Amino acid sequence: MPREDDYLQAARTLTRLAERAGSVGAELDGLRYTTTVRGGTLQGIVQQAMDASYLNAVRTVEACRSAMQEMHRRARLAAEYTADIRAWEQSVDRWNGDRGRWLEQLDTDPSARGPGNRPGRPLPPERGIEAG
Amino acid sequence: MTADAYEMDSDRVRDVAGRLRATVSAAHDISGELFRLEFTVQDWDVFDLVRTPNSEFAAEAAQLAQILDLHADLVDAADNGWDMSGMNLLGASLTAMIAELRAGLDDGVGSSGNGAELIADLEQIAFDGDVPEMPSGTTNAARWYAANIGGVMLARLTEAQRARFWSQSSPGKRLQIIAQFPGLVALNLLAHGVGLTADELKRLRRANAHPTFTDQRFIDGEVNVNLRVITIELGGGLSLLLTKMSDDTVQMTTIQDVRAGAGIGFTSPNASLSVTGGGIFEAQQRFVFRNEAAAADALDDLYAAVRHDGTSWMYDAHWAQQSFGVTPTAMLAFLGMRAFGPNSGSRTVGEMNRLYQEGGTSTSLGLGNYVEVEADFEGPVGDVAADLSAEAEFRGRLLAYDTDVTHRSNIPGQSGFIVSGVLAGDGRAPLLLPGAPPWPVHASGEIGAIADFSRSDNGTKQASFTVFASGGIGSGGGVRISAVDFDTNVAQYGSYSYQLVVPITDATEQDVARALTDIAVGRFPTESLEALYDRSEANVVVERGLRLTGDADVDTKVVSVEVDSGRSTSAVVTSKHKLPGGDMIDQLEVQRIINAAMANVD
């Protein structure tokens, strides 16, 4: 399951992909204003396809950026979840210690109060997010 | 550069195809990376929004590259004299590929490259992603778009982007942009080879209309009655200003004023000083005529009416004088004839009303106060000027006004008040040249400022501030006939005026408050003034011309009568205009660009 580092790595890759798509868009932006071919019908479809390709490149950049933000959001959630798990592990350790002492106490004091229920493991904030 | 500026040869077409393939390769790399990322984050949907346009791009750009290569092959084949069967084969392949590409573009996935998508993209570029949204309830969407988006697009986009924006914009939006930003359309589109239709050019010419030539005529009469200490002044004047605009229309403004006041004066053998103040009533009518001939016809009609009325007055005066001599009875008879006689009506007033029906744009009535301080000097000044006569005058006015407009006006009616001050001076002295008789030289100049605070009928408020200066030098002379002194003068003159029109809004009120605060703490309000300037409209006009003036004075110890008249004609040599948020645009340069484009269309 993906952890914080995985999401951060994905965000970095997406930043690179956005830059790559941006370069493609810039190349297309230059070509679409300077490409002129013989024939009205052909020129029309070439122009339209150039524009569409440029706009698709621009949309790819925008989508990469929003996906990158999503990866950062998930990385943050994964980091918070990791901190929750660390805290839970510590509370379980404490509970185990309390329980051991209580079991020893029971030998001399049958009415000694127990440590209560075992702390529950926190649930992932979203499906698929794992603690580091 | 426009897309159809030139056609590429087959080598260049192949070069474009090669560059397209390089971008397709990049798109495939991006797809591969996305595939790996999906495994990394264990989510097979999250990158769909990236994958869809990227895949569309890869597929369509690859098809386009193929088409371009095939097109280059076809061009080469034609140039190399291939037989028709081979050519037809290539042509059929090309047609099939085009059909396939067109189907891909129109499949509803990714971008289709249509005009709306292109404009939306250019808007994002021009506004850096923060495109203004049209408020709900906007009645004229095209006008709003032009004012809030179209002008900015023309100012901020690159040359190629502007051309594409223009070609994809609807005719309605284009006309609104022309009406509101003629300077940008001419300088940023026309001057760079972007074509406009003949109708658009005509509208552009009209939208850029600015004065090119002015012809002003005036007559002003004044009667002063000296009552020992104070002087009673009664006066009035008529002024006619004809302005020829660059779109051939002619604007005419008539101004009539009457004033009554009282003053005091001090005299010495060589100098005199007087201070006069009182009330003033002013009426203004504005007209617009479609061309010079129409304006000339209107003027002919008006002058004929004035001549008729003048003759009629003279006739009645002559009849009264012949019948009753120069007596109070004659005066009463004259007034009776004017009030109830056969010629008592005013043809001039009737003609004015008719002209107003035909071409009137606004009528303005104003009521206020005036003050005049006048100083005169006459006599020798050392050895320099043996017979110098000089006059300096300050005229101040406060006038409240109300303007009604007709359907021909392109601005709403308004009311407000004007504060103005003018300092004028003139001097004359004989110029002594060796071996020549003395040459009477006359120099004059004035500087002034006008502040106009108005509220229009649609609720908007604005303040306009105008400063102006003019100066002239010429020659003239005087003659005394009976008890009347006649004086004429002809001069070359130049004038400069600068006007700043500040809309009164929350933002500008804040700027004014900031400026006042800065001044209060002893700091020059640079930032607030810059902000005010940026939010304001500005006009600069420079004129050069010829002025002919004449006056006739009768001066007795008790009563003095003075009639001034004149005419000035001038050509506008500079006319610049700045819209809020824009740069100063040279309207004469814009006009030259429009004229050149119209010549090509014609």
In brief, what are we looking at here?
Chain A has 132 residues and is mainly α. Helices cover 76% and strands 0% of the residues of chain A. Chain B is α+β, with helices and mostly antiparallel strands and 602 residues long.
Helix content of chain B: 40-55%
On the 0 to 100 scale, the average pLDDT of chain B is: 90
Number of strands of chain A: 0
User: In sequence order, what are the helices and strands of chain B, one letter per element?
Assistant: HHHHHHHHHEEEEHHHEEEEEEHHEEEH
Which strand-content bin applies to the residues of chain A? under 5%
- State the separation between the terminal residues of chain A, measured CA to CA: 10 Å
**What separation lies between the terminal Cα atoms of chain B?**
23 Å
Q: Give the DSSP E fraction of chain B (strand runs of 2 or more residues).
A: 35-45%
Summed up, the domain count of chain B is 2
* Rg from Cα of chain B: 35 Å
* Derived structural class of chain A: mainly alpha
Question: Helical element count of chain A?
Answer: 2
Poorly predicted regions of chain B: 1-5
Describe the structure.
The complex is a heterodimer of chains A (132) and B (602). Chain A is an all-alpha fold and 132 residues long. Chain A has one domain (4-108). Chain A has two helices and no strands. The mean pLDDT of chain A is 91. In chain B, strands 1-2-3-4-5-6-7-8-9-10-11-12 form a twelve-stranded antiparallel barrel, surrounded by four helices. In chain B, helix 10 crosses helix 11 and helix 10 (292-324) runs antiparallel to helix 12 (347-359). Chain B is α+β, with helices and mostly antiparallel strands. Chain B has 15 helices and 13 strands. The model of chain B is unreliable at 1-5 (pLDDT under 50). Chain B folds into two domains: 3-207, no CATH class; 211-601. Chain B is 41% helix and 39% strand. Chains A and B meet through helix 1 and helix 2 of A and helix 1, helix 2, helix 3, helix 4 and helix 6 of B.
